[in-house]
Design brief:
about 90 residues, alpha+beta, 3 helices, four-stranded antiparallel sheet
């Protein structure tokens, strides 16, 4: 179980780096804080807009948004939010 969390953490860090330089969306601290574990991709996109970039590996979908220096990554498993991470949201 601990290894799974390590893999998720490493994956989120890698995804954040890979998604640097992505374009727009409605990313703000307020909208990101409304994203909750268990939400669908459609619900997240209604809050944040279309993701600038996404990738899917082994049934895990990682989507990224950027607004200036602010970056956010949301990870989906089985169509639902599994985790989220943001940097420099104000």
């Amino acid at each position: 179980m601990i290894q799974a969390f390590r893999c998720i953490g490493v994956g989120l860090a890698a995804a954040t780096l890979c998604l640097a330089g992505c374009g727009g969306g409605d990313l703000s601290k307020e909208s990101f804080n409304e994203v909750k574990v268990g939400m669908s991709q459609e619900e997240v996109e209604a809050l944040l807009g279309s993701a600038a970039k996404s990738s899917e590996v082994g049934g895990t979908l990682t989507m990224g948004w950027e607004n200036g220096d602010a970056k956010a990554v949301v990870v989906f498993r089985n169509g639902k939010v599994k985790s989220k991470q943001a940097d420099s949201l104000e």
